[in-house]
């Protein structure tokens, strides 16, 4: 990878939008910048915040974006924790128009997983934030747009409804941790994964001892995965 190529990496979340620039080896060359996700988080409002962040990051040659929803070829197909106006919005094309730089967009958990996996066997990534993100890899190959957080978990409710930020605030850490342990046991039986990676802003609130095949990864991995989107 050419060290001269700089990638602007963007992580759009339900509560915050973060960005910095990476060199060709995936090392940050600017300080991470963050702005709160606007309310309501429409495409226009989020792009307005992004324009402020992008202006602080200096020179870059291409853009990678992690988005909290299903993304097909740069177009958003679901955005449960943002705004319905995102559905059908082509974020890649919008950023290319405003910046003049080539842009690739992926599910945010997929992008985080690209930064942390070992590329061996079945590996599962869960991101614990406003919602619940998920990414599945088999021998380093991504199964895109898993969106497991919206699958049924217990009592007719989804994994995200039990493990998202709203549940953590409502039920408290003790119950939230119990739900997470139960979910991990379910998912290990379902996927028989070799490794589980737990990321996102609420991963730091895990209070039980993890099994040997589970690891907490830094939240910044959501940005560091930006280089991986350009690996052909």
Compose a concise summary of this entry.
This protein is of the alpha/beta class and 232 residues long. Helices cover 28% and strands 27% of the residues. The protein has a 5-stranded mixed β-sheet with strand order 3-2-1-4-7. A 5-stranded mixed β-sheet has the order 10-9-8-13-14. A two-stranded antiparallel sheet has the order 5-6.
Could you characterize the architecture of this molecule?
The radius of gyration is 17 Å and the shape is globular. With 232 residues, the chain is α/β, with parallel strands linked by helices. The longest helix is centred in the C-terminal third of the chain and has 19 residues, at 173-191. 28% of the residues lie in helices and 27% in strands. The protein folds into 2 domains: 7-110, ATPase, nucleotide binding domain (Nucleotidyltransferase, domain 5, 2-Layer Sandwich); 116-222, ATPase, nucleotide binding domain (Nucleotidyltransferase, domain 5). 42% of the residues are buried. It starts with 6 loop residues before the first strand and ends in an 8-residue tail after the last helix. A 5-stranded mixed sheet has the order 3-2-1-4-7. It has a 5-stranded mixed sheet with strand order 10-9-8-13-14. It has a two-stranded antiparallel sheet with strand order 5-6.
